Amino acid sequence: MLDDELGSSELGTLEFWEARYDSEIQNFKNHGDPGEAWFGEDIVDRIIKWISENVDKNVSIADLGCGNGHVLIELAQLGYTKLIGLDYSEKAICLANTIKDNQSLNIKYEVNDILLGLNGVYNVIHDKGTYDAISLSENSKEFREKYRINVHSALEASGYFIITSCNWTEEELKEHFKEGFELHCTIPTPEFKFGGKVGSVVSICVFKKK
Ligand SMILES: C[S@@+](CC[C@H](N)C(=O)[O-])C[C@H]1O[C@@H](n2cnc3c(N)ncnc32)[C@H](O)[C@@H]1O
User: Fold this and answer.
1) Domain ranges of the chain
2) What is the pLDDT of residue 199?
3) Average pLDDT score over the chain
4) Cα–Cα distance for residue pair 78/184, rounded to 1 Å
5) With a 6 A CB cut-off, is 55 part of the ligand 1 pocket?
6) I need a surface site. Which of 29, 118, 137, 187 has the fewest CB within 10 A?
7) How far does the centroid of ligand 1 lie from the alpha carbon of residue 24, in Å?
């Protein structure tokens, strides 16, 4: 059933992310380790390739739940200039700023709870793993709806919303975002076969604002 919720987990809480980024700040300071690229480098490469082939360098791009900022860092290195990372964890923003300052990159970071509304309006909105985390909160159904409404209001007309999820399939994402968005394309991800059925572990959908 498409309406099934995932059940709550600590990944759906701010306390979890604050504690996690606190230890990642220490790791970066002590060992220069910037931390994890959620879902792995191969997935990041696929997203960056799609953006670089389809999105002009001068458009505004917001990364929701940016964590350590690794997607924005790759985009900055390719010449994108209007980049903003938003995360509700102050520690995530502190980590992302520390990493950025080390490399003198032109990226802005702000503490922003997406469920309270986004700071600004953007041509492209990107999310890798953040809708997943929100889907694991106690009020997930209500929060997912708020998320959809807030992303929709913060996207310029015909803007792209690129979402990567390991919790929801392409079909489920299409259903969740059918109001206000239309599927533009999917970015292929590695597939597996089990019991005669082919599936993907991670889904990447690119929606356009209707
Ligand atoms: C699974 S991590 C993904 C981090 C990053 N996007 C990546 O791909 O590595 C989820 C991120 O979403 C952030 N997050 C969760 N709920 C949020 C909310 N309501 N507003 C803003 N950020 C949120 C967390 O702090 C965390 O950085």
Assistant:
1) 10-158
2) 66
3) 93
4) 23
5) no
6) 29
7) 14
Provide mean pLDDT across the span 155-181. Answer: 96
Structure tokens at 56: 């002009």
Cβ of 74 below 6 Å from ligand 1: no
Could you identify the residue written with the tokens 């953007």? 122
Atom nearest to 164 CA in ligand 1? 8
CATH class name, domain 10-158: alpha beta
**Residue 141 · residue 125 · CB < 8 Å:** no
Answer for the pair 204, 49: CB distance below 8 angstroms, yes or no.
Answer: no
The finding on whether 88 has its CB within 6 A of some atom of ligand 1 is: yes
pLDDT-derived band at 3 (thresholds 50, 70, 90) equals: low
Is the distance from CB of 124 to CB of 51 less than 8 angstroms? yes
Place of tokens 């469920």: 115
Residue 35: both structure tokens together? 């931390």
- Name the residue at shortest CA distance from atom 16 of ligand 1: 134
CA distances from 8 to 2, 19, 65, 112, 182 (A): 17, 18, 18, 22, 28
As a residue count, the chain comes to 210
